């Protein structure tokens, strides 16, 4: 059967998953993990893609990535070929290492971006490899909490708070929260709602101006934000721009 074409992301951001062929390990020891991360770093410099999250998990890996100056399929092909060449040399083997082509899904909504981010960081926890994601060495969680190496942490932390220390604490709380996140399930496309219509919706329903929501009581703020999040076609980033609240604050409402 012919392969189904990948759906293009309007944001150029994708959640990528790669598995070992027949579910075999693609990372045997620490040196393998380091090699893959070095490979990601090298092609990040060449292709200028942005990486927001990664997790290396023995027989598979996850990436949250924004396409760079070439098609993402080309980038992943180059990363995969480089790593497989080294892996086969390292273990004196031949042939394919990865299961078919990589799996991907477009990430277009801020809320789903955060869901994927947490899903990736909690992979080792849900797989029973660790009981604390802060102890897992081979994910981008460490880059947010300690020092960034190859991950665009500033883009993500700005979604939580303007102050960096506060943003890191909110990022930590968010990533440690118990959840039932499910990913790699393509969600239906949504139509975009204009700023004007959003403001009118709030005015009609609550008799207040959306721009002044921050001056209302906490209960009113939460009620309005929860109502708006339930409407089709509104992104968290759009609501952040219209209200002045951070994306994290709106997400939690």
Protein model, in words:
- This protein is an alpha+beta fold.
- The protein folds into two domains: 13-176, Transposase IS200-like (Alpha-Beta Plaits), CATH 3.30.70; 195-252, no CATH class.
- The protein has helices at residues 30-47, 72-90, 110-121, 123-126, 141-145, 153-157, 164-176, 195-206, 218-229, 236-243, 247-252, and strands spanning 13-19, 50-56, 60-66, 103-106.
- α1 (30-47) packs antiparallel against α2 (72-90).
Main-sheet strand order equals: 2-3-1-4
Tell me the CATH architecture of the largest domain.
Answer: 2-Layer Sandwich
**Uncertain runs with pLDDT below 50, 5 residues or more?**
185-189
Q: Any idea of the CATH class of the largest domain?
A: Alpha Beta
Q: What's the total number of strands?
A: 4
Query: How many distinct folded domains?
Result: 2
Please tell me how large the radius of gyration is.
20 Å
Summarize the biggest pleated sheet: 4 strands, antiparallel
Shape: elongated
Spatial separation of the terminal alpha carbons: 45 Å
CATH H level, superfamily name of the largest domain: Transposase IS200-like
The assigned structural class equals alpha+beta
The residue fraction in helices comes out at 40-55%
Number of helices: 11
How much of the sequence lies in strands comes to 5-15%
Mean pLDDT: 89
Instruction: Could you tell me the CATH topology label of the largest domain.
Output: Alpha-Beta Plaits
Spell the H/E element sequence.
EHEEHEHHHHHHHHH
């Amino acid at each position: 059967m012919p392969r189904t074409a990948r759906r293009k992301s309007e944001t150029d951001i994708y959640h990528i998953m790669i598995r070992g062929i027949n579910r075999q390990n693609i990372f045997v020891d620490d040196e393998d993990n380091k090699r893959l991360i070095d490979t990601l770093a090298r092609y990040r410099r060449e292709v200028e893609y942005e990486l927001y999250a990664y997790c290396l998990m023995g027989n598979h890996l996850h990436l949250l990535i924004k396409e760079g100056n070439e098609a993402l399929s080309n980038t992943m092909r180059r990363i995969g070929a480089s790593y497989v060449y080294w892996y086969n040399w390292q273990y004196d083997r031949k042939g394919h290492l990865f299961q078919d082509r990589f799996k991907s899904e477009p990430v277009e909504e801020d809320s789903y971006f955060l869901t994927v981010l947490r899903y990736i960081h909690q992979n080792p926890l849900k797989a029973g490899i660790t009981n604390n994601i802060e102890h897992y060495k081979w994910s981008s969680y460490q880059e947010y909490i300690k020092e960034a190496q190859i991950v665009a942490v500033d883009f993500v932390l700005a979604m939580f708070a303007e102050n960096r220390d506060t943003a890191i604490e909110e990022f930590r709380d968010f990533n440690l929260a118990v959840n039932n996140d499910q990913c790699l399930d393509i969600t239906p496309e949504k139509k975009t709602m204009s700023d004007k219509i959003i403001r009118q919706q709030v005015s009609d329903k609550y008799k207040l101006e959306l721009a002044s929501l921050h001056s209302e009581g906490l209960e009113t703020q939460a009620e309005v934000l929860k109502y708006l999040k339930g409407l089709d076609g509104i992104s968290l980033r759009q609501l952040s721009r219209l209200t002045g609240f951070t994306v994290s604050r709106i997400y939690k409402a």
